[in-house]
Amino acid sequence: MLEEKIKESIKAVVDPELNLSIVDLGLVYEIREENGNAFVKMTFTSPMCPAGPLILSNVKKNVLEVAGVKDVKIDLTFNPPWSPKMASEEIKAMFAEYM
Predict the structure, then answer these.
(1) pLDDT tens across 4-39, in order?
(2) Which fold would CATH assign to domain 2-98?
(3) CA distance 58 to 54
(4) 75 near 40, Cβ under 8 Å?
(5) So what's the pLDDT on residue 92?
């Protein structure tokens, strides 16, 4: 399925401040694909994330490299705001002492 390939391409994008995958961090809320057009709804760890432009650029680049994807639209949202509780179980374990 193309959506799974898109997710895998985004999983390679790392938050440079935390050095962790944005998918594993729970920053990607939704991935859809329609007729070769990818739609990604995501957030940052904070609205003022200094790495935000780099992360967005890397997501777009990686998704466009997926065979079958013609275009990508990224919907950046801060509702709901991100928290470590949204991360994968592995990441939550790493953050456990801070939660």
Answers:
(1) 999 999 999 999 999 999 999 999 999 999 999 999
(2) GMP Synthetase; Chain A, domain 3 (3.30.300)
(3) 6
(4) yes
(5) 87
pTM (2 decimals)? 0.91
Domain boundaries, the chain: 2-98
Among residues 55, 76, 69, the alpha carbon closest in space to that of 10 is found at 55
Q: Which residue has the tokens 């994008």?
A: 13
Q: Answer yes or no: are the C-beta atoms of 56 and 90 closer than 8 Å.
A: no
User: Phi, psi at residue 64, to the nearest 5°?
Assistant: -65, -20
Token output for 92: 């939550």
The answer to whether residues 36 and 70 touch, using CB atoms and an 8 Å cutoff, is yes
Q: Where are the alpha helices (DSSP H) in the chain?
A: 2-11, 52-64, 89-95
